[in-house]
Write a structure and sequence with these properties.
Structural class: mainly beta
Order of helices and strands: HEEEEEEEEEEEEEEE
Oligomer: single chain
Radius of gyration: 16 Å
Number of helices: 1
Strand content: over 45%
Largest sheet: 4 strands, antiparallel
Distance between the termini: 29 Å
Shape: globular
Helix content: under 10%
Strand order of the largest sheet: 1-2-3-4
Number of strands: 15
């Protein structure tokens, strides 16, 4: 799965409003600094390294402070996991610059996909698909805990799963070849 993520050409843009200023967050996997903040059609800030192989981009108010955050999935080596692996990093935007909020080296298990649910008190919940030790795929829910994410008690496991999609309070994916749909309320 990591190889498929690493070679995928990716160009994503997401609108982002901070106060009264409208930006576009761009993830251009072919750029030397792939995560870009655009204002009035000009790139005004760039972060990340090309060799970190970005593979996903989400916008959400992670911690419930009323300011949207930028979540990006990357593949890189870290101090405690020297082999390349998927990571989730969270950035804020302040004064036209990306600010580091959380640079997670792991979610505890190999991260396959992620998405954020609708904002709740305390921020938008993070839903992940992760590879278990047994080689299966688990859907998990996390909440921001002040510095990083805390995993909730509930999870569902399939032999295989992909296509995580969160919208309108629903969680959709393909589990063991069949469409699965849940209410995010079921996962509180």
């Amino acid at each position: 799965m990591l190889l498929a993520l690493a070679v995928t050409a990716l160009f994503l843009e997401r609108p982002l409003t901070v106060g009264k200023v409208r930006y576009v967050v761009r993830l251009d996997a072919a750029a030397l600094k792939p995560l870009q903040l655009v204002h009035s059609r000009r790139v005004i800030d760039r972060v990340l390294k090309l060799d970190w192989k970005p593979w996903a981009l989400q916008i959400a108010d992670v911690d419930g402070d009323g300011h949207v955050d930028v979540a990006v999935g990357i593949v890189k080596r870290t101090r405690y996991l020297p082999q390349p692996h998927t990571c989730l990093w969270i950035f804020g935007v302040r004064d036209g610059k990306f600010t580091r909020k959380w640079l997670g080296s792991t979610m505890g298990r190999p991260l396959l996909e992620f998405g954020f649910g609708e904002s709740e008190k305390g921020g938008a919940p993070l839903f992940t698909l992760e590879r278990t030790l047994e080689g299966k795929v688990a859907l998990s829910r996390y909440r921001w805990s002040g510095f990083g994410f805390r995993k909730g008690p509930k999870e569902k496991v399939w032999d295989s799963a992909n296509g995580l999609l969160l919208q309108h309070g629903k969680i959709e994916l393909i589990g063991d070849g069949r469409p699965e749909r849940f209410s995010s309320e079921e996962w509180k």
